[in-house]
Amino acid sequence: MDVPSLVVVLQAALNPNPAERKATEESLNKFQYTPRHLVRLLQIVIDNNCPMAVRQVASIQFKNFITKNWAPLNPNESHKILQSDKDVIRDYILEIVTYRH
User: Fold this and answer.
1) CA-based angle 95:97:101, to the nearest 5?
2) Could you tell me the pTM of the whole model?
3) Where exactly are the structural domains of the chain?
């Protein structure tokens, strides 16, 4: 899923209709393990052109996925985040931390 499509999906997550939110969650769950998904979320988080609410949803999605999947608790479990994505995320995190408004 490209960044503009992901923004639309994240915007739908703010819909007050529970059925719409459920469909949005299913869509996000479907794409969360694809390569560069986390990188796209971070791109949205730092994009000042995106609405703040969408950026907040992206940051929550990012945080939740990282918390569950950055390093598997079980050593026999496969890694769900590609090393290349982790490297890019580390670089973006540094950019975010050092970004001045």
Assistant:
1) 85
2) 0.84
3) 3-98
- Model pLDDT for residues 53-74, shown as the tens digit of each residue: 999 999 999 999 999 888 877 7
pLDDT digits (tens, 9 = 90+) for 69-91: 888 777 787 788 889 999 999 88
CA distance 44 to 46: 5
Among all chains, which residue has been given the structure tokens 């769950």? 29
Q: What is the DSSP track for 6-62?
A: HHHHHHHTT-S-HHHHHHHHHHHHHHTTSTTHHHHHHHHHT-TTS-HHHHHHHHHHH
User: Is there a contact between 10 and 44 (Cβ–Cβ < 8 Å)?
Assistant: yes
Token output for 73: 């608790």
